[in-house]
């Protein structure tokens, strides 16, 4: 066998031919190709179905993430409000303590006690 014959044989094998290429039934080749095509189409449908399933799962996860992010922001806003209200409460306590320790509050204590007795809140 010459080098050219070996190259021709390799080319025949590479393109689906071979030593028996001329002896094969074209109908069998067509049926095999159709079966390969059917299998490939089935695999593509399965892959498309899996892709759609993954897209739905991704959308659900993105929705959960968005809700979690919104909850996180709401939590931060609520924490800020709590801090603001705590600061306001402390300020009011400080003002109240200032009033109760003032001279005017101490001087009017007997008057307030009388008013309580008169109103019946003793």
Characteristics of this structure?
single chain, 84% helix, mainly alpha, 0% strand, 122 residues
Structure description:
- The protein is mostly helical and 122 residues long.
- The chain has one domain.
- Helices cover 84% and strands 0% of the residues.
- It has 4 helices and no strands.
- It has helices spanning 3-14, 26-100, 103-107, 109-119.
- It starts with a helix and ends with a helix.
- 0% of the residues are buried.
Quickly give the structural class.
mainly alpha
Q: What's the N-to-C terminus distance?
A: 127 Å
Q: Summarize the biggest pleated sheet.
A: none
Helicity level, as a percent range? over 70%
Strand content: under 5%
Radius of gyration over all CA atoms, rounded = 45 Å
Summarize the entry for a quick read:
The protein is mostly helical. Helix content is 84%, strand content 0%.
Please outline the helices and strands:
Elements: H1 3-14, H2 26-100, H3 103-107, H4 109-119
């Amino acid at each position: 066998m010459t080098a050219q014959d070996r190259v021709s044989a390799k080319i025949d094998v590479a393109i689906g031919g071979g030593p028996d290429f001329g002896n094969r039934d074209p109908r069998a080749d067509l049926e095999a190709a159709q079966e390969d095509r059917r299998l490939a189409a089935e695999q593509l449908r399965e892959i498309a179905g899996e892709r759609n399933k993954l897209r739905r799962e991704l959308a659900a996860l993105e929705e959960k993430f968005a809700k979690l992010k919104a909850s996180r922001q709401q939590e931060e806003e609520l924490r800020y409000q709590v801090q603001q209200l705590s600061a306001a409460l402390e300020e009011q306590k400080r003002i109240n303590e200032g009033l109760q320790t003032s001279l005017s509050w101490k001087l009017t204590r007997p008057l307030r006690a009388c008013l309580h007795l008169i109103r019946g809140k003793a």
